User: What shape does this take?
Amino acid sequence: MLSIAERHKYILDKLNEYGFIRITDVAEELGVTKVTIRNDVKILESKGLLYKVHGSARLANPHIADRDLETKSHLNRDAKQRIAARAVKLIGESDSIMISAGSTTYALAEAIHGNPPQGVLNVVTPFLKVSTLLCELDNVRVEQLGGRIHHKSCATLGENASLTLSNMVCSKFFVGVDGIDTDFGITTSTIEEAQLSRKMMEASSKTVVLADSSKLGQRGFGHIAPLEEVDIIITDDGITKEMREVIEELGIELIIA
Assistant: This one.
């Protein structure tokens, strides 16, 4: 049987390789009880070497704070542009789509602007920057959702924005998220943004999550939906092998940009 020090090394090595571990998996791999591994994780957390969450452990605190759009736009920009270039290929001729607020979804709008679609494209969005950019195109009809403007996201929020959606049906909802977590699903930084994104999901045939790999394993404050309700995830090659397996096991189409 492994010593405490050997178990701790095994746990930390796994975390460095995969980014997160499940307590049940480690207990089975080492042939010890889940209580033993939980105690090991608590000790390592007290030393600041990991962060314990429900049934698992991670290298860092997965809970993220609300950040303004300008700050987000400079993070992982190359990956976001690759994701957007791949996402735009999912838009059909004379399509109707919804686009949430976010730096990656704005990159999608830039990709649409740089390569205008064939036929007429209907775009529904709460995101003011997307509306402003895409209304420059003659063959794009933009439906701006109304409501109170959230200054950090430059997007409308509230009941008025949600009510408008009851009269619409779109083929795809392209949603930017602040976190993708195997236990908590897709999340964003505020409850109101999450509620509106949920309504947009319900008004669309498919949900396409656009998220660079830094969002995997993270959790925002506002819960949008369980992971299994997502149809497609587009991310970059920074995704871990374990996260890739979890997503594919759920039957979600995974596209690496």
About this structure: DSSP finds ten helices and 15 strands in the chain. The chain has a mean pLDDT of 88. Residues 13 and 124 are 45 Å apart (CA to CA).
